[in-house]
Design a protein that fits this description.
Its EC number is 3.1.1.85. The protein is of the alpha/beta class. It contains ten helices and seven strands.
Length: about 260
């Protein structure tokens, strides 16, 4: 039976829903939960098929967002990291009246490089998909290492991500492949052009998966949104720089 893991904690009077990235689970937020729990009601979610949300077959982006709707609080702030940024964006697009603001972290409306659009090379994602079936654990570990590469504490941060993965049930190969397929195929650039919500985009200057040039591209395309590039961060800024990261969240939400 499919069951979505959704845990609520915190004493604040605003709802903040945290959506993790590919291969991981809600424990990835452990660095920032203590820093935010007095300011928000935090909703920690394992995306369908990941962590404790077991029993799901691979889903499309729209189907994944649909699974979250029954428990989504009204007027919540959505914060999505990487793949979770696409899920949060999809929710904001389909249910704008239920969303107060959108925050994406180290995410892109289109992860794959296309024409002049910066992103991950299609063959890189295809290679990860092919390698999953032959060496599941090593492929996940390689992806986690890419997320922290270049930061001052890269090994320590990568170890923390690996511990998060191992702390909860592992997603199936099929679910992981489905997540990579979303990263490879989905493109929300045009859909988000007219998003009628406060929108903050946070990037890492050293991010090897979501190039920082995307921030400039979207600054021009989405002038109503705002962006911050964290200079010494890579793909997981809430792990490498939790204090700076949480301050950005509190400053943005205080103005919305």
């Amino acid at each position: 039976m499919s069951s979505l893991y959704w845990h609520t904690t915190g004493t604040g009077d605003r709802d903040l829903v945290l959506l993790h990235g590919w291969g991981l689970n809600a424990e990835v937020w452990q660095n920032i939960v203590p820093r935010l729990s007095s300011h928000f009601r935090l909703h920690l979610v394992d995306l369908p098929g990941f962590g404790r949300s077991q029993g799901f077959t691979p889903l499309t982006l729209a189907e994944m967002a649909q699974q979250l709707l029954p428990q989504l609080p009204d007027r919540a702030v959505l914060l999505g990291w990487s793949l979770g940024g696409l899920v949060a964006s999809q929710l904001a697009l389909t249910q704008p009246e239920r969303v107060a603001a959108l925050i994406t972290v180290a995410s892109s409306p289109c992860f794959t490089a296309r024409d002049v659009w910066p992103g991950i090379k299609p063959e890189t994602l295809q290679n990860f998909q092919q390698q999953l079936s032959t060496d599941f654990q090593r492929t996940v570990e390689r992806f986690l290492a890419l997320q922290t590469m270049g930061t001052e504490n890269a090994r320590q941060d990568a170890r923390q991500l690996k511990e998060v993965v191992l702390s909860q049930p592992m997603p199936s190969v099929a679910v992981l492949e489905g997540g990579l397929e979303i990263l490879r195929q989905d493109d929300l650039r045009a859909a988000l052009d007219d998003l009628p919500l406060p929108f903050l985009r946070i990037y890492g200057y050293l991010d090897g998966l979501v190039p920082r040039r995307i921030a400039e591209e979207l600054d021009s395309r989405w002038p109503a949104s705002s962006s911050v590039v964290m200079e010494k961060a890579a793909h997981a800024p809430f792990i490498s720089h939790p204090d700076e990261f949480t301050q950005l969240i509190m400053t943005f939400t205080a103005a919305t």
